[in-house]
Amino acid sequence: MKKAGIIMIIGSLLLLGLFKFPLWNIMLGAPQYPDPLGMDIYIEGIKGVQEFDIQNIDGLNHYIGMKIIPKPKDMWEFQVFPMVIGIMVAIGVIIGLLGFFGKVSYKWFIGWFLVMSVLGIMGMYDFNSWLMEYGTDLNPKAIMKLLNPDGTPMTYKPPLIGYQKMLNFDVDSWPSTGAYMMFVGMMMTIVAFFVGKKEYKKMKAEKKSSLKTVTA
Amino acid sequence: MKKTINILVSLIMVAGLVSCNNGGNKRGNKGKGGLATNAAEKVYVAPGDHDEFYAFMSGGFSGQLAVYGLPSGRLFKVIPVFSQDPEKAYGYNEESKAMLETSYGFVPWGDAHHPDISQTNGELDGRWVFINENNTPRIARIDLTTFETAEILEIPNSAGNHSSSFVTENTEYVVAGTRFSVPVPQRDMPIKDYKGNFKGALSFITVDPKSGSMSIKFQLMMPGFDYDLSHPGRDKSHGWFFFTTYNTEEANTLLEVNASQNDKDFIAAVNWKKIEEYVNNGGGTKVPANYAHNVYNDETHSATSTMLKEVLTVNPLDVPGAVFFLPTPKSPHGCDVDPTGEYIVGNGKLSADLTVHSFTKMLAAIENKKFDGEAYGIPILKFEDVLAGIVKQPGLGPLHTEFDGKGNAYTSFFISSEVVKWKLGTWEVEDRQPVFYSVGHVMIPGGNSRKPFGKYLVSLNKITKDRYLPTGPEVTQSAQLFDISGDKMELLLDFPTIGEPHYAAGIPADIIAKNSKQIFKLSENKHPYATLTDGDARVERKGNEVHIYMTMIRSHFNPDNIEGVKVGDKVFFHVTNHEQDYDVPHGISMIGANTSELLIMPGQTETFVWYPKQPGIWPFYCPDFCSALHQEMQGYVRVSPAGSGTELKWSLGED
After folding, report:
1. Do A52 and B554 touch (CB under 8 A)?
2. What pLDDT shows up at residue B192?
3. CB contact, 8 Å: A51 with chain B?
């Protein structure tokens, strides 16, 4: 399972991109912001696309009573996510190596993928609930308290994924480089699974024929 | 004077002395050629689109520098340089007052003339614009990342700083020549003893290649003529500088007549490299002087003014072979050098012809020592020996010439009110177009450098009369834009200017637009009275001085309630704009303050002083519509009677 092991190792290592590149990106454009303000969401914290974007987004958000964008120390996620990713990369590489030397079954590859997928979905769920809280838990003394056409107070949850018009802002929320690298990496672990399976079958077939020659 | 000129023009036209090939056109359609062509399309810059060129136009007697776009003619900014500007608090706030200090004290006004953009290898590099002040001789440097005046250097021993502020190929020097000769040093003497006793100082100012900082390297003390305009050599003539002179008669009264008697005045050719070498080897004489050097710092957001006490002077006779006179007919005004550096155009303003000298011939004549006498010991070359050619009868009153880099020259004619295109080398007139009216300088972006961008020409006109809707006795000056990309010039646009647009400097927008600063970083703010965090906002009393350390951000001041100020106090508002977002300045103005508003850019600190005169509650507010809650951006100061015991306190957001 040499080939499958290498693919598994590369696939897991691609997740390291999350330490360098943002997972998600939210851009806020408006008539007064032809050059949109933007947030890059990393597993270790939130940074502005331009140097002062976070400060400026906070400045605008204070009109509608939104909390300021959390600093890394304000959310447990920014400590836990890097650890989870780090551990998963390490496990992936170890499985890959063991697979390379034929010490574990190719099924471990899909097992890693499934665990990672569950963790990913949990992460997305957590991210969405943070967006929900961020966009709806508003300061009662907000300068501007706007109502929806049906009379309910307006909230400002940015979309988890896609485009949405919010007041004067055009909001775009999309996965970013880190997420794409993770996606490709995870896909590679599936490839590793199938390649491993093929290699295993081939090996088995070779073993059988060699056995036959021996018995004959 | 204007009347005389008009009568003169009419007479000449009637007499048909001017071979005006567009004469019928000129009378008939008043330059409305645009209707017949696609001129409108050529100058239309759609909403949201950007212009192709910046044009920095002198504000003349407004003392400022205006920034326009070409081809649209839209005004973007007026940069305050030599005059106070209450809109921007320039010369009013405590930080910028020092910029207008001179050896005569604070001077609130200046007469701006000739902007010139810094160069590298003879090409525009777009780092700085230099501009001269004519009345109280000064040179300013404007930083093209902030579009603000960064430095002003006073020029001693000079008066009427007119043959200025032109830069050499690598911005080694910016040059300032005196139009009025004066006694040096200044002294009490009869005016009529001018002749032989006055001096004309030509100042060579070095520019630090990194910081742009200016200092006078040397002053060449020339005979007491009037040094009118100047231009550095280009390419092959790099290392030389050329100055036109008039009043070689050295008349001291009724110059109109008495300075117009000599058939020929001079162009002074100065080998500055030779003099630089002489000075570097210890040559020259240090003389006492007193002149201001004012520098604005983008980190302290403040200017300092230093009085310099000494200047190095050079007697041209001490550096043989460095200065020569080229005879040039009839009080030449503009002195222009073509992009190759070979041709030196003397625009003899009272002549009907245009004289062009040859640099190669000049060097040969110097080499062969073919002199035609001397003036105050300076050799005069023979007119015929240095002459490259004459443009015959191109018009009346030639003033200035620019180049398109394709072998053509464009000369302005004040009296016949036209721009004439002619060919270098053949000296043939190729085209002429009327201008409305009485053009001074013309400008082609890069048109005085080694690499002109010969697409547009701007004619900078002194008189407009009927060109626009009337505005009482005082009407605007104007700029007219020509397309010069074809064989014939085409008038495209006509737009008003601020003050008198003596000269302008144009540059492709992409060279400087990318460097334009958006904000000042608060983290780099080193103003001694800056308030960098909201926690530092406070009020301090020192005797009868009250210092308010205030911050501003959309949409409040911190603090916005202040008590304990008393009649008789001197109250300093030190206000820091905490925004770090593009195009979010805030202002502050106090009822009854005897000064201007402040207009503070993001990250900047500025200060104004208020003398409260009457007990009461006095409001202040932000005069720049900054945000949806701009109207809420206000505060109060409680003023108690002198000697009362009201405690000093301040707050924000407390009930």
Report:
1. no
2. 94
3. yes
B123-133 and B240-246: which strand pairing? unpaired
Q: What is the largest CA-CA distance in chain A?
A: 90
Helix, coil or strand: residue A35:
strand
B561-566 and B598-600 beta bridge pairing: unpaired
Contact flag A59-B553 (C-beta cutoff 8 Å) = yes
Lowest mean per-residue pLDDT among B38-52, B247-261, B496-510: B247-261
Q: Which of B466, B462, B460, B456 is nearest to B490 (CA)?
A: B456
Pick A52's closest partner by Cβ from B554, B581, B629. Answer: B581
Helices and strands, counts by H and E, chain A: 5, 5
- DSSP letters, B60-105, are GGG--EEEEEETT--EEEEE-SSS-BTTTTBTTSTTTGGGGEETTE
Is it the case that residue B5 has pLDDT exceeding 60?
Answer: no
With a CB cutoff of 8 Å and minimum separation 6, the contacts of A129 are: none
Arithmetic mean of pLDDT, A107-129: 94
Q: Is residue B337 pLDDT above 90, yes or no?
A: yes
Which of these, B92, B142, B85, B86, lies nearest to B110 by C-alpha position? Answer: B85
Q: What type of residue sits at position A38?
A: G
Is residue B247 within 8 A of residue B218, CB to CB? The reply is no
CB contacts < 8 A, A to B, total: 17
Buried b (16+ CB within 10 A) or exposed e, B170-184: ebbbbbbbbbbbbeb
Confidence class of residue B4 from pLDDT cuts 50, 70 and 90?
low
Q: Which residues of B touch A59 (CB under 8 A)?
A: 553-554, 579, 581
Which of these, B249, B204, B203, lies nearest to B225 by C-alpha position? B249
Q: How many CA atoms lie within 13 A of A19 on its CB side?
A: 13
**What is the average pLDDT across B175-203?**
96
H/E segment holding residue B181: none
- B33 falls in which pLDDT band (50, 70, 90)? low
Q: What letter represents residue A207's amino acid?
A: K
Helix-strand-coil percent breakdown of chain A, rounded to 5? 60, 15, 25
Query: With contacts defined as CB-CB under 8 Å, which chain A residues touch B628?
Result: 63, 144
Burial code (b: 16+ CB inside 10 Å, e: under 16) for B330-358 equals bbbbbbbbbbbbbbbbbbbbbbbebbbbb
Asked if residues B372 and B382 have their Cβ atoms less than 8 Å apart, the reply is: yes
Of B282, B287, B371, nearest to B321 by C-alpha is: B371
Query: How many other C-beta atoms are found inside a 10 Å radius of the C-beta of residue B616?
Result: 13
Q: What is the ipTM of this complex?
A: 0.84
Query: Inter-chain contact B581–A143, Cβ cutoff 8 Å?
Result: no
CB nearest to A56's CB, from B581, B628, B629: B581
Per-residue model confidence as pLDDT tens digits over B226-236: 999 999 999 99
Give the per-residue pLDDT at B263.
Answer: 86
3-state helix/strand/coil string of A112-135: HHHHHHHHHHHHHHHHHHHHHHHH
H/E element, B157 = none
Residue B557 clears pLDDT 70, i.e. is over it: yes
Query: Residue A28 in contact with residue A17, Cβ under 8 Å?
Result: no
